[in-house]
Automatic annotation (TrEMBL):
CDD domains: NAD_bind_Leu_Phe_Val_DH. InterPro entries: Aminoacid_DH-like_N_sf, Glu/Leu/Phe/Val/Trp_DH, Glu/Leu/Phe/Val/Trp_DH_C, Glu/Leu/Phe/Val/Trp_DH_dimer, Glu/Leu/Phe/Val_DH_AS, Glu/Phe/Leu/Val/Trp_DH_bac/arc, NAD(P)-bd_dom_sf. Keywords: NAD, Nucleotide-binding, Oxidoreductase. The active site is at K77. One of its GO terms (biological process) is amino acid metabolic process. Pfam families: ELFV_dehydrog (PF00208), ELFV_dehydrog_N (PF02812). This is Valine dehydrogenase (NAD+). SMART domains: ELFV_dehydrog. One of its GO terms (molecular function) is nucleotide binding.
């Protein structure tokens, strides 16, 4: 992969510490709106090329997410290549923290797949540019709490747009993934009066659902879920959930979920529209987590952060109306709004120096 011919990233940093086994890549897509903020994904990629492709895609997505959330932050992301169950250690995380610190504030890191608030506490021992920390260490705690709340708000806006009322009461929602975000989202949906059908590859997640919310109907796998008679599909696991195989058999009228990069390629947006399926862009509705960790940078206040995450309802509502007015899919409308903000505000800032 030619990094210079990718999506125009400002900076890509390869980090290696042989003693701890650390192999990490930090991608900074844009600092036009401020320092780049995005989580660290710890994942056993098949190859270095796969890790690089993911960090480039994810960091670009964070730039658009932060812009649409109205934050004065750019977009960045990091990946640590390896199996966290085997490789993660205090020494490795601290080595990674030193690499983050070397960027002198151009990149703030936080949690993502494979990393947790306790990991950010360790990273923060080497850098002040780590957020998403535990409450015991002055942080906000689990960012998936407000991620799920924001997804729920986006889903309410999509329900209003589709059925005329901002509620999921009486609707059947299929949740793919009952991990960090999916489990909280399921709770909000049940409280709102929805019927929840769900699946997860992790047996412990299924056991949690059975014990905590026995009213959730559990199905064997995602293929079964998307082909079921559901009103809303909520992808809450890894990316690429909407692809050339899944969209043709999807029975839901609405797609709103917490996963990043849900569209396998740009043509999926048009395919969804042709099938009459309303897709709320993932980086718009799942911005609650980044709103939470961004608030932590300046001294965390949960009520203030939750109020801002609640605003995802209005953001989604305006976005869906803009898509109608301009005759484009919501994903295209969202990109236009994000790019406009980065261009207009970014002219005042240029490259952030830290």
């Amino acid at each position: 992969m030619d990094v210079f011919d990718s999506d125009g990233h400002e900076q890509v940093v390869f980090c290696q510490d042989r003693d701890t086994g650390l192999k990490a890549i930090i991608g900074i897509y844009s600092t036009a709106l401020g320092p780049a903020l995005g989580g660290t994904r710890f994942y056993p990629y098949e190859s270095e090329e796969a890790a690089l492709a993911d960090v480039l895609k994810l960091s670009r997505g964070m730039a658009y997410k932060n812009a649409m959330a109205g934050l004065d932050l750019g977009g960045g992301k990091a990946v640590i290549w390896g199996d966290p169950a085997k490789l993660k250690s205090e020494a490795l995380l601290r080595a990674y923290g030193r690499f983050v610190d070397s960027l002198r504030g151009r990149y703030y890191t936080a949690c993502d797949v494979g990393t947790y608030v306790q990991d950010m506490d360790v990273v923060a021992r080497e850098t002040r540019y780590a957020t998403g920390r535990s409450v015991e260490h002055g942080g906000a705690g689990d960012s998936s709490v407000l991620t799920a709340w924001g997804v729920f708000q986006g889903m309410r806006a999509a329900a209003e747009h589709t059925w005329g009322a901002p509620s999921l009461a009486g609707r059947t929602v299929g949740v793919a993934g009952l991990g960090k975000v999916g489990k909280y989202l399921a709770g909000h949906l049940l409280d709102d009066g929805a019927t929840v059908v769900a699946t997860d590859v992790n047996e412990s997640a299924l056991a949690w659902a059975s014990a905590t919310h026995p009213q959730i109907e559990l199905v064997a796998d995602t293929d079964t879920l998307i082909a079921s008679d559901i009103d809303v599909y909520a992808p809450c696991a890894l990316g690429g959930a909407l692809n050339d195989d899944t969209v043709p058999v999807l029975r839901a009228r609405v797609v709103t979920g917490g996963a990043n990069n849900q569209l396998a390629h740009s043509g999926i947006s048009k395919l969804l529209e042709d099938r009459g399926i309303l897709y709320t862009p993932d980086y718009v509705v799942n911005a609650g987590g980044v709103i939470q960790v961004a608030d932590e940078i300046h001294g965390f206040n949960f009520e203030r952060a939750k109020l801002r995450a609640t605003g995802i309802f209005e953001t989604t509502r305006r976005l869906l109306q803009l898509a109608v007015d301009e005759g484009v899919p919501p994903a295209v409308a969202a990109d236009r709004l994000a790019e406009r903000r980065m261009a207009e505000v970014g002219r005042l800032r240029s490259i952030y120096l830290g």
